[in-house]
């Protein structure tokens, strides 16, 4: 059955309520925070300067609108799911005086229209008609020139549990001004074919067919909560159009709108919970596309405009995952690369307490059933989808620092401090928090305590719902794809339950003011004082489109100055249920002029202006555009995907490590496939071994003279197919001159501690590529290993081996034994780690290691990395390995390290290090002062290891595990924490007594960044910063290459984790990160379009053969890329 997590959690309560009152909301996309902390991914810059925004009182502005909700027996959240979602707000110049006017929507109260009189003074000019129909339920509002007469009209949406006649949307056509300059309106929805009675959220006017007039996307929602579905029912519902709840697309046919939804290919089923839409040219083909945010587990849609009147949903081809309860969204270029990025809001709180009161345990069964029903990977947090320009997006919301903003509604990217970078404003809050787990339990108990539920009981339940006002968020763009929370610093400090919001330069002073629609509270008007405080410059642009698209919707404006670019695309309807000012705003910082400005109109023409002075409003007319825009032809990519010369695919698995150890941090069964290369048959051509997964043997591929590879049968490999290959190493083990093969046996899933199938293997080569397993070459090694590294440790001329061990199956994170295998010269190995390197035996959960002579004494030293391990240096002193890490690093660098590269990257002749780590795009943030801790012990003495992950949230360390997860792991905790509230603030020392903590072990991580360490002149490694793209996702492979033949080493970083625990979510933002080196230890990111890499999945191995890069991808077919002709 298909169901959302929270629905499962509260299903008994909801079932009772369904019986009692027909409809009750399953906890959709709602949540709120009772307190505000600081979420920051960038630099803090708290000063004593006055706040940037000043809240203006209604008495001063004469804007007295209040979206008052009156709860009653027939008007409450139990009868209408979206009762507390709030109303929209629209802003635009309705009377042509150059000042933006404001229209507020009241869900139950009359709407209000305010005329801007200048100097932040407004006049209420609401009429009986523009107030909307009396009573509920009004939602979103849009200002647009619907009929193309040059005057802004107003389109109003309706919804609610009401008869269809009371849900008919209204269109107020602007009739022009009277003698006092006051605009008047006539309601004409019926005449225009827009008196739609569906359950509407918001209207989006745009020219999807580029015929010069405005068409309409009507975003709708199902008023009933998501039902319990099975796969077949879901498929059936998705194929059926529902005109009342599904989205609608209307084509403008000479000012009469025709419903073409089905013809256009838009999904319009009852499984529609649309709360936001972003309209923009997402793929750069000149035609506007559509992103739709859906509540619940109903997937979002990313519709690509096919340029023929139809759309294709490309979401699963372009995004790795999405928000679960997607609400408002915005499309904007957040990093000034000229590409539109996508941001969706969800409901994950920032603070630990709210998370613990909200979050339910990971439910993998339901998650998989959701995927089987055709839905998608969805996780409860805000998502920032960074546009890579090649049809893919990298989700980096957690790295950016904007993933947790609680129960959020409207996101608005704009440059609020005029520094040239788009900042972010987010409204949030919900009047009744019916997702609070303790409250759900209370209601469930209450319903069962009464024999019959009366209306008075329903009202009592509603009154008992916890209510909490919260503070909206403001984030400053740091200019490096991260944001800093400046909410309080910039003057946003009044608690509210805000929903619709817009930005506009209300006083024409060159900075953007903010307006929010609040529930049960006067609307906010924040005056922006950036112009007077910061003295940054600006440029504001008014677009005058030709034909009927008079606002120039869909036009793209780019400005260039000092080698930098800014980009805006005209689309006023954005955020949540609202439409912003159509005047485009650019902050310029200290720049006094713009070198050039380019506007590309939707019709295909362009115009270019040069040397434009700052601090002015300019008007651009489409009729002045005389030249056709011709997109620049993309140069050939550096690398191009080609057919792989090796026909290999890593087998799919139905493995879930978290069903064995639910509190494990990262999965342990997905480290393959491994790849190794060597000339095994002496023909001068390198051959390839591809490791097998459990139940499938490894495969030897023999290279042919034409560069292709053929599979060679090896019975010895087949005999060991029940072992899982995680690493492979070719070397001459027995000194016969032939290349032998060592294979590491790893894995986790259903292996037992000490399982014989975990024994590593040595296969001897007869010189012709025929391999035989050596039965007595290795000691007993029944551990899950990770890597094999060869060197002559004791100086006897024979190759020895370090074998790093990864995990004890079923007992994560207990430390397994690693091995130091000393070769007798005949290919027989003895484990002498206890004698020669005792500190190395229990070094940690090793992931990688490298032999290197660090001190130039002619002996090979060893660098070892691993999960929850410090980077460790073992120096070879007379054949003994001693830990001398402190001699080479100024501090401890403990991380979740995955891969190690040793290479001279700055051309100084000394070895440098690049070490792949988990990255910075996660909820877990660490530092020296605030590390992550992993406590582990069999706390309840039931024979299993209980790992408890803790990390800092708002400067205090808390367990990541939820109350229910803790109880499921340690049942005695139920009595200790009878309520969610009692657990919400608990630290590790609150959960366990000092006696229970005795014997518990602790691992620590203070650095999760993929790191570059330069070997300095003082003989120590010093960390240098890599481009931020290196932190997008966990890095598992690091490939050195000089792709442009300039003599400097470049780097290719690959990785990802697609089998993560649900609360972490997939890490899939890395499509192959190419970094160009300058030979001095500095690296520059080469964007995906230029590099050509678009590798999806978990890359676990990379080989370079014949100028081809071969990628081993977990559970996928091998992919191959070749260096193109364009290499410089």
Q: Give the overall form.
A: globular
Count of extended strands: 71
The number of distinct helices, counting runs of at least 4 residues, comes to 23
Strand line-up of the largest beta sheet: 33-32-35-36-38
How does this model look, in words?
- The protein has 23 helices and 71 strands.
- Helix 2 packs across helix 11.
- The chain has 1128 residues and is mainly beta.
- Mean pLDDT is 93; it is low at 1-47.
List descriptors.
1128 residues, 71 strands, mainly beta, 5-stranded antiparallel sheet, globular, 12% helix
Which helices and strands occur, and which strands form pairs?
Elements: H1 5-9, H2 11-21, E1 53-56, H3 58-61, E2 89-92, E3 101-104, E4 112-118, E5 121-124, E6 138-144, E7 153-158, E8 170-177, E9 183-187, H4 189-192, E10 200-206, E11 215-220, H5 231-238, E12 248-252, E13 257-259, H6 261-264, E14 274-280, E15 289-294, E16 301-305, E17 311-313, H7 315-318, E18 322-323, E19 329-332, E20 341-344, H8 352-358, H9 364-372, E21 378-379, E22 383-387, E23 393-395, H10 397-400, E24 408-414, E25 423-428, H11 437-449, H12 455-464, E26 473-477, E27 483-485, E28 498-504, E29 513-518, E30 524-528, H13 530-533, E31 537-544, E32 556-561, E33 564-569, E34 584-589, E35 593-600, E36 605-613, E37 616-621, E38 627-628, E39 639-642, E40 675-678, E41 687-690, E42 699-703, E43 709-712, H14 715-718, E44 724-731, E45 740-746, E46 761-765, E47 771-773, E48 784-791, E49 800-807, E50 819-823, E51 829-831, H15 833-836, H16 838-841, E52 845-852, E53 861-870, E54 872-877, E55 880-883, H17 885-888, E56 894-896, E57 899-903, E58 912-916, E59 932-937, E60 946-953, E61 956-959, H18 963-969, H19 973-976, ...
Parallel strand pairs: 18-21, 31-37
Antiparallel strand pairs: 1-30, 2-3, 3-4, 4-5, 6-7, 7-8, 8-9, 10-11, 11-12, 12-13, 14-15, 15-16, 16-17, 19-20, 20-22, 22-23, 24-25, 25-26, 26-27, 28-29, 29-30, 31-34, 32-33, 32-35, 35-36, 36-38, 39-71, 40-41, 41-42, 42-43, 44-45, 45-46, 46-47, 48-49, 49-50, 50-51, 52-53, 53-54, 53-56, 54-55, ...
Helix pairs in contact: 2-11
């Amino acid at each position: 059955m298909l169901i959302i997590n929270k629905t499962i959690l509260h299903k008994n309560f909801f079932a009772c309520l369904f019986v009692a009152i027909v409809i009750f909301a399953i906890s959709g996309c709602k949540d709120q925070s009772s307190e505000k902390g600081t979420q920051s991914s960038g630099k803090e810059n708290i000063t004593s300067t006055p706040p940037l925004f000043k809240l203006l009182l209604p008495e001063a502005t004469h804007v007295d609108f209040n979206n008052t909700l009156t709860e009653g027996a027939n008007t409450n959240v139990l009868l209408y799911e979206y009762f507390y979602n709030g109303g929209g707000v629209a802003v635009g110049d309705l009377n042509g005086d150059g000042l933006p006017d404001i229209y507020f929507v009241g869900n139950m109260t009359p709407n209000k229209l305010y005329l801007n009189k200048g100097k932040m003074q407004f006049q209420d000019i609401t009429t009986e008609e523009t107030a909307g129909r009396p009573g509920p339920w009004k939602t979103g509002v849009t200002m647009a020139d619907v009929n193309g007469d040059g005057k802004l009209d107003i389109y109003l949406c309706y919804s609610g549990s009401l008869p269809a006649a009371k849900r008919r949307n209204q269109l107020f056509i602007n009739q022009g001004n009277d003698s006092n300059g006051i605009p008047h309106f006539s309601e004409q929805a019926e005449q225009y074919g827009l008196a739609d009675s569906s359950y509407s959220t918001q209207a989006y006017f745009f020219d999807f067919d580029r015929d010069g007039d405005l068409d309409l996307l009507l975003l709708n929602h199902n008023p009933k909560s998501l039902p319990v579905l099975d796969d077949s029912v879901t498929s059936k519902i998705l194929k059926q159009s529902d005109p009342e709840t599904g989205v609608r697309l209307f084509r403008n046919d000479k000012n009469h709108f025709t419903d073409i939804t089905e013809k256009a290919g838009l999904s319009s089923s009852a499984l529609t919970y649309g709360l936001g839409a972003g309209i923009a040219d997402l793929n750069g083909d000149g035609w506007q596309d559509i992103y739709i945010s859906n509540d619940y587990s109903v997937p979002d849609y990313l519709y690509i405009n096919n340029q023929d009147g139809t759309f294709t949903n490309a979401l699963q081809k372009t995004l790795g995952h999405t928000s679960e309860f997607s609400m408002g969204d915005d499309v904007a270029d957040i990093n000034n690369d000229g590409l539109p990025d996508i941001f969706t809001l969800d409901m994950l709180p920032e603070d630990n307490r709210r998370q613990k009161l909200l979050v339910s345990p990971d439910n993998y069964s339901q998650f998989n059933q959701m995927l089987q029903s055709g839905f998608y990977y969805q996780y409860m947090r805000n998502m920032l989808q960074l546009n890579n320009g090649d049809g893919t997006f990298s989700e980096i919301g957690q790295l950016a620092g904007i993933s947790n903003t609680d129960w959020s509604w409207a996101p608005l990217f704009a440059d609020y401090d005029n520094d040239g970078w788009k900042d972010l404003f987010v409204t949030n809050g919900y009047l009744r928090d019916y997702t609070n787990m303790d409250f759900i339990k209370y209601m469930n108990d209450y319903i069962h305590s009464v024999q019959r539920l009366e209306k008075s009981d329903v009202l009592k339940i509603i009154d008992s719902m916890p209510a909490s006002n919260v503070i909206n968020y403001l984030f400053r763009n740091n200019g490096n794809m991260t944001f800093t929370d400046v909410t309080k610093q910039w003057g946003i400090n009044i608690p509210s339950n805000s929903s619709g919001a817009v930005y506009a330069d209300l006083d024409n002073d060159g900075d953007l003011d903010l307006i929010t629609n609040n529930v049960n509270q006067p609307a906010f008007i924040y005056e922006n004082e950036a112009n007077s405080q910061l003295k940054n410059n600006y440029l504001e642009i008014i677009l005058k489109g030709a034909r009927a698209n008079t606002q120039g919707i869909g036009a793209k404006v780019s400005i260039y100055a000092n080698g930098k670019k800014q980009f805006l695309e005209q689309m006023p309807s954005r955020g949540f249920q609202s439409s912003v000012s159509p005047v485009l705003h650019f902050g310029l910082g200290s720049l006094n002029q713009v070198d050039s400005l380019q506007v590309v109109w939707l019709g295909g023409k362009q115009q270019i202006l040069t040397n434009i002075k700052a601090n002015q409003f300019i008007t651009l007319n489409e009729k002045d555009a005389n030249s056709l825009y011709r997109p620049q032809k993309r140069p050939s990519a550096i690398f191009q995907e080609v057919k792989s010369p090796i026909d290999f695919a890593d087998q799919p698995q139905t493995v879930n490590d978290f069903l064995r150890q639910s509190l494990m941090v990262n999965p342990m069964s997905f480290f393959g496939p491994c790849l190794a290369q060597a000339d095994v048959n002496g023909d001068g051509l390198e051959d390839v071994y591809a490791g097998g997964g459990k139940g499938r043997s490894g495969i030897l591929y023999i290279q042919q003279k034409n560069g292709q590879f053929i599979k060679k049968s090896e019975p010895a490999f087949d005999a060991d197919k029940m072992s899982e290959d995680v690493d492979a190493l070719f070397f001459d083990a027995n000194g016969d001159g032939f290349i032998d093969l060592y294979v590491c046996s790893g894995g986790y899933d259903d292996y037992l501690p000490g399982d014989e199938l975990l024994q590593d293997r040595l296969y001897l080569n007869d010189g012709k590529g025929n391999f035989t397993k050596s039965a007595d070459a290795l000691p007993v090694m029944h551990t899950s290993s990770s890597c094999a590294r060869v060197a002559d440790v004791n100086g006897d001329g024979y190759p020895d081996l370090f074998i790093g061990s990864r995990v004890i199956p079923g007992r994560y994170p207990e430390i397994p034994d690693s091995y130091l295998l000393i070769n007798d010269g005949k290919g027989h190995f003895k484990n002498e780690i206890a004698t020669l390197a005792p500190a190395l035996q229990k070094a940690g959960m090793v992931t990688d290691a490298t032999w290197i002579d660090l001190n130039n004494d002619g002996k090979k030293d060893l660098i070892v990395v691993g999960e929850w391990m410090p980077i460790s240096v073992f120096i070879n002193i007379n054949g003994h390995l001693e830990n001398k890490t402190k001699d080479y690093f100024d501090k401890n660098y403990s991380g979740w390290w995955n891969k190690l590269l040793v290479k001279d990257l700055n051309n100084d002749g000394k070895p440098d290090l690049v070490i792949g780590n988990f990255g910075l795009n996660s909820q877990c943030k660490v530092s020296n002062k605030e590390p992550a801790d992993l406590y582990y012990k069999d706390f309840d003495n039931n024979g299993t290891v209980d790992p408890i992950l803790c990390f800092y949230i708002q400067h205090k360390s808390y367990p990541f595990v939820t109350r229910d997860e803790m109880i499921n792991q340690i049942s005695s905790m139920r009595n200790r924490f009878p309520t969610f509230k009692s657990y919400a603030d608990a630290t590790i020392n609150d959960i366990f007594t000092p006696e229970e903590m005795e014997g518990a072990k602790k691992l620590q991580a203070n650095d999760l960044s993929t790191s570059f360490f330069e070997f300095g002149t003082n003989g120590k490694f010093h960390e240098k910063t890599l481009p931020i793209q290196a932190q997008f996702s966990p890095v598992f492979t690091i490939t050195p290459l000089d792709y442009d033949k300039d003599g400097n080493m470049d780097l290719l970083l690959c990785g990802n984790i697609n089998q993560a625990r649900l609360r972490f979510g997939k890490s899939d933002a890395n499509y192959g990160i190419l970094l160009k080196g300058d030979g001095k230890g500095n690296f520059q990111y080469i964007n995906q379009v230029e590099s050509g890499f678009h590798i999806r999945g978990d890359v676990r191995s990379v080989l370079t053969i014949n100028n081809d890069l071969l990628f081993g991808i977990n559970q996928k077919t091998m992919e191959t890329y070749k260096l193109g002709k364009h290499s410089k």
